[in-house]
Specification:
The structure is a homodimer. Chain A has eight helices and eleven strands. The first copy, chain A, is α+β, with helices and mostly antiparallel strands. The first copy, chain A, has two domains: about 130 residues, Jelly Rolls, CATH 2.60.120.10; about 90 residues, Arc Repressor Mutant, subunit A, CATH 1.10.10. In chain A, the strands form three sheets. Chain A has a four-stranded antiparallel beta sheet. In chain A, strand 4 and strand 5 form a beta hairpin. In chain A, helix 6 crosses helix 7. Chain A is globular and about 50 Å long. The two termini of chain A are about 20 Å apart. Chain A binds a DNA duplex (30 and 30 nucleotides) through helix 7.
DNA sequence: CGAGGGTTTGATGATAGTCAAAGTGAGTGG
DNA sequence: CCACTCACTTTGACTATCATCAAACCCTCG
């Protein structure tokens, strides 16, 4: 019951770039299977040499790093279409762990086929580099956030980016999207404590800017939120799908 | 008076990977010239579509992003051998600004030749992706630092990484290396205020762990420093040179 | 010798962390 | 169907880390 790349439900969303027939076919051959995991399942571990790569097909997860004293930094939230494990592939070791937050389905690729895939088609190689670059770009933005913005501002920024990502994927309906994370996850992503995160969210809610409860996010006033966050509102750009 | 890739002074250091003759020759053809800049010169601007790429040949600089309110986040410190402008190339726009801290000499490449270069040799394309991946890896580590470590710990981490990078490049002599940045730069890199940065450095100095003055860094006790920073001591790995 | 960039220091206050406890709601088992 | 548990959220009280302000200091340079 493996999804055929030709009929990939993701590619139908306008968010992902179209693929030439031969790219599609090569990707199909690259794909070695599918993996379904339950919430909380670790998918990749920091420092491990994973033999496989994934693309998130359904469900959400997160990337994180942990410090020796147990502190955790959430590096990124994983949405459908995200490519997982490039670091293990290029650097031989994952720089962060990956874990499923909801039920997830992942397309599986064998690392041993990666170089062939990379070589087989310049466009695809370029796509992979593009993904690495956009990730670097995003991490840079996250860095400014954690380093320079204060909590309210950080929170606003995070919600805006999450919402935009959701919107691009067509997850937003009636101004609402599923956001199945815990406050602890957001807190760990922004480098603030759970308690402080909670109080900060409460503040945004009190100001009628947004609501996030029961795993659903609603944004009431994007303009005002953007002002709080000090960001330009811009659509995420279309991205390649591996 | 342009340095020939064949005799590139960087490649002689063991830190950079060897290059096959044809790679070397393609790189040479890719290189369109050299640029010498004085301290303080902006090299790339956030948001700009730079027509050129660079490799730092000599000198040091920094990458940073600025917020509307003027706050600055230093994303990374640029050392000889660093590749500059990949983001502009892949994403069409720089995600951060780049500025020279010391006098610098940069190898210049034309963006219009980039795709050809990328396509011409799979190994080189791979190298570029590798660089993007290692950068992503490093930014992840920075993220944990800013998000989870407290000031002393952050500082210790930063000095360790800078020192290791310097050591790999052969800049360390008698346990000392040049580190021509201001305390403000370090502060902006770690997301703390100048005053606090200063006091934190003073603390490390008082504990006899290191000294950083007059643009020179000395580390007295790497072990203890690593303990403060909560990091493993590991050599930076050899990297490709573009 | 004065100017200016960078560093250092002290005083004060705000932002955010920690601790502790209560509230909420979904899921489970008797 | 009703406790009961467990994971998560919410709130209050207290504290620490860190930011801001201001002034002095140090050094190089013209």
């Amino acid at each position: 019951m493996v999804t055929d790349c030709k009929h990939c439900p993701l590619r139908r969303r306008g968010f992902f770039e179209d693929m030439a027939p031969d790219e599609l076919e090569k990707t199909q051959r690259f794909k070695s299977g599918e993996l379904a995991v339950t919430p909380g399942t670790p998918i990749l571990m920091e420092g491990s040499k994973a033999p496989q790569l994934y693309t998130a097909l359904r469900g959400m997860g997160l990337r994180y790093k942990t410090l020796e004293d147990g502190r955790r930094q959430v590096v990124n939230f994983i949405f459908p279409g995200d490519f997982i494990g490039l670091q293990a592939c290029m650097l031989d070791e994952m720089g962060h762990s990956v874990e499923a937050t909801t039920h997830m389905t992942l397309c599986v690729f064998d690392r041993s086929d990666f170089y062939d895939f990379f070589r087989s088609n310049t466009k695809r190689a370029f796509d992979i580099t593009w993904l690495a670059a956009i990730e670097e770009h995003f991490l840079g933005e996250t860095l400014v956030t954690i380093g320079q913005r204060e909590a309210v501002s950080s929170m606003a920024w995070a919600f805006i980016r999450l919402y935009q990502r959701g919107a691009a994927l067509g997850l937003v309906q009636n101004g609402q999207m599923p956001l199945p994370y815990r406050q602890q996850d957001l807190a760990d992503a922004l480098g603030i404590s759970l308690v402080h995160a909670n109080k900060t969210i409460a503040k945004l809610r009190a100001h009628q800017l947004l609501n996030w409860s029961a795993g659903r996010l609603t944004i009431f006033d994007m303009e005002a939120l953007a002002k709080v966050a000090q960001v330009e509102i811009e659509e995420p750009r279309r991205r390649p799908l591996i």
